[in-house]
Amino acid sequence: EAQVTQNPRYLITVTGKKLTVTCSQNMNHEYMSWYRQDPGLGLRQIYYSMNVEVTDKGDVPEGYKVSRKEKRNFPLILESPSPNQTSLYFCASSPLTGHHTDTQYFGPGTRLTVL
Amino acid sequence: DAKTTQPNSMESNEEEPVHLPCNHSTISGTDYIHWYRQLPSQGPEYVIHGLTSNVNNRMASLAIAEDRKSSTLILHRATLRDAAVYYCILRDYQAGTALIFGKGTTLSVSS
């Protein structure tokens, strides 16, 4: 089954304790992206990657890192989490043919709470 | 990307058609109109998209105004499972691949 998976689905942590949220897709998509969703602010893009070893900042990249060492994986790293990073996080992937049919597929979400 | 305007919320009864409007008066000639929806506790999912002509798929229909300044997502027979936030998004594939989500329309469906 074609899908985007995220782990963990729920995480409660404390300020300053490094964490990684994993994202994996099995559709051989070139493009992958991370979003955060907050009440009243909607979905905002954190980072995206057009292919292996190619990453770029989205609208809200501060406090986050990403890497793209393999095509299928795009982990989100919080080196020193803070309470304002408490949010619902979504990973997404898409083909990158440049055609209008390049729709995005989203993972189930990771709810992160930073105390 | 050009801006879209949607009503904050709409209500429907089960088995009835639902018409979700979207205004995009500053749409450019190369913008495609996409609709995604987000069911409760899930990630967004693609619904439908179009450029100029009306489009149909198994989930919905998309009616695009002749001047392309507005569009309507049509759910022909709403079910309880269609209760979700519906996002109307414009995408210019020549400009890049980011999806810019607005606030969307929260659709409630009653039995």
Describe what this molecule looks like in 3D.
The complex is a heterodimer of chains A (115) and B (111). Chain A is built from no helices and 11 strands. Chain A is mostly beta strands and 115 residues long. In chain A, strands 2, 4, 5, 6, 9, 10 and 11 form a 7-stranded mixed sheet that branches. The radius of gyration of chain A is 14 Å and the shape is globular. The termini of chain A are far apart. By secondary structure, chain B is mostly beta strands. In chain B, 0% of the residues lie in helices and 47% in strands. Chain B has no helices and 9 strands. In chain B, strands 1-9-8-3-4 form a 5-stranded mixed sheet, with no helix packed on it. In chain B, strands 2-7-6-5 form a 4-stranded antiparallel sheet, with no helix packed on it.
Count of discrete alpha- or pi-helical segments spanning 4 or more residues of chain A = 0
Distance between the termini of chain B: 38 Å
N-to-C order of helices and strands of chain B: EEEEEEEEE
Rg of chain B (CA only): 13 Å
Average of pLDDT of chain A? 94
* Topology, number of strands of chain B: 9
Low-confidence stretches of chain B: none
Q: What does the secondary structure layout of this molecule look like, with pairings?
A:
The complex is a heterodimer of chains A (115) and B (111).
Chain A: E1 4-7, E2 10-13, E3 19-25, E4 31-38, E5 42-51, E6 54-57, E7 65-66, E8 76-78, E9 87-94, E10 105-106, E11 110-114
Parallel strand pairs in A: 2-11
Antiparallel strand pairs in A: 1-3, 3-8, 4-5, 4-9, 5-6, 7-8, 9-10, 9-11
Chain B: E1 9-13, E2 18-23, E3 31-38, E4 45-50, E5 55-56, E6 61-64, E7 70-75, E8 84-92, E9 105-110
